Amino acid sequence: MTRPRADLDVSSVFLDPAAFPGDDPLSWNALFGDDGPVVLEIGSGKGLFLANAAQARPDHRFFGIEIAKKYARLAAERVVKAGLSNVRLWPGDAGHLMAKRVVPGSLREVHVYFPDPWWKKRHRKRRVFNEKLVDSIAKALTPGGELHVATDVEEYFGVIRELVGADTRFTEIDPPALGDPEHDHDYLTNFERKYRIEGRPVYRSSYRLQEAVTAVS
């Protein structure tokens, strides 16, 4: 397994939650030092999506949340090595940050790729996707903003579609087309690369926020 490099300075992209005490909303302009659309990824892993997307869209700002600090650090290293300045990594819990610290209507897109399925039934309450997260995403997106999801677990995919489909603020749309990779990094995530090479199915869905950012009664 890849190990973080202590000698690599990632302070420009790797955020320390201790430096942001309390639950005050995060200022994207302060974090990135400029203005532009914000794309947020929940569960960034080793940062393949963030690095690829940030390089393809330099006019956007990318914010990744990864609960495993080691992986968040590896993602930050990938970003620094790529010379990207439009990415920030937050090591922490996505549910809390989305509910408490993201300014309503401030995100252009939210991406959730291959969330932990927590296979054992008694552990499924730990899954990141639940009604509370869907509500938080709806509030955080700007009207017309998009949610993109992918998983290799068909049962979990059904749960996600049911949760998002039950929220009338979202309309399901066609997910972006995935081209044939020409390079080892031309994949959505490390998991997608692994599963497609193995010939395993990947389930994907996308949604657009249609209504004003209000709570479901």
Instruction: Report the CATH topology name.
Output: Rossmann fold
Oligomer: single chain
Note the gap between the termini: 46 Å
Radius of gyration: 17 Å
- By CATH's scheme, which homologous superfamily applies? Vaccinia Virus protein VP39
Describe this structure in words.
The protein has one domain (17-209): Rossmann fold. Helices cover 30% and strands 21% of the residues. It is built from 7 helices and 7 strands. The chain has helices at residues 28-32, 48-56, 69-81, 94-100, 131-140, 154-165, 190-198; strands at residues 38-42, 61-66, 87-91, 107-113, 141-151, 170-173, 203-209. Strands 3-2-1-4-5-7-6 form a 7-stranded mixed β-sheet, sandwiched between helices. The radius of gyration is 17 Å and the shape is globular. Mean pLDDT is 87; it is low at 181-187.
Would you spell out the secondary-structure blueprint of this structure?
Layout: H1 28-32, E1 38-42, H2 48-56, E2 61-66, H3 69-81, E3 87-91, H4 94-100, E4 107-113, H5 131-140, E5 141-151, H6 154-165, E6 170-173, H7 190-198, E7 203-209
Parallel strand pairs: 1-2, 1-4, 2-3, 4-5
Antiparallel strand pairs: 5-7, 6-7
Brief description of this entry?
The protein has helices at residues 28-32, 48-56, 69-81, 94-100, 131-140, 154-165, 190-198, and strands at residues 38-42, 61-66, 87-91, 107-113, 141-151, 170-173, 203-209.
